[in-house]
Amino acid sequence: MIIGNNEQEPLTCLENPDMNSTGAISVLSQTIPPQWLPSAINNYQLNSCSSNRNARNRCCDVVSLSIIDKFFDCNVQRIYNNLYMKYQQSHKLYWYHLDCNPGICPELSIEEGAGVCAHVDEIPFVFGTVSSYNSMNFHNCTWDSQTRSFSNKIISHWISMARNGEPLQSWPQYSPTAKKYFQITPYHDFSPEPWYRDCSLFDQLEDEQIRIMFPITK
Which residues fall within 8 angstroms of residue 216, CB to CB, at 6 or more apart? Predict the structure, then answer.
C-alpha cells in the first residue's frame, strides 16, 4: 500500500498570503467541531501567528500545516499503525510527501502558483506528460532536463510498485517505531525523512466522531 500527499494540498498561502490570526482561526473553524476548536487553536498557537510573509509562524503556513495534519498525515499514521499492528510486516506500507514545480510548462508567475505543488499538480510528472489537469489546451512548451529527470524518477518508483509490489530500495517501508515518509522533490535527491508530528488531538477527535457515527448499544 502506498499513501501520500502533495506538500501544498491546501492553497492557503497562495489564496490569502497576508492572513492574520483572526482569518486563520476562521479557516480552522470550518474543519474543526466547535467544542474542539479552542484545543486546536492552542495546539497550533494561532492566537500568536503572524501575517508577516517572512515570519516563521506565518498564519497561512500554520493553517496549512493543521489541515495537512488533520486530513492527511495523521490519517496515514492512524491507518498504517493499525495495519502494522494487525499484519506486522506482511503488509508493505509506503508513505510519501510530494513536492513539484508546476510552473515550468506552461510557465506560471508566482501569483499564478509557480512552485506550488497543489492537489493534482503531480499528475503530469507521474505520467510523464507535459500537460495540465486544469486545461484542455495543448501546451507548446517543453520541460527542462531537470524536470524530465524528476518525472522519470517518480515513474521508476511507480513502475517498480506495479511490478514488484514495492518501490525502489531507496524508499523504506513504514514502521511505527521509526516513522518516515519518502520526500519526492525536484530540488534535491529523493530521501526518507523522519516524521515527528503530534496527532493526539486529531486521534481524540477521530475517536469521538466514530463513537457518534457508530454508537455502542447495550
Answer: none
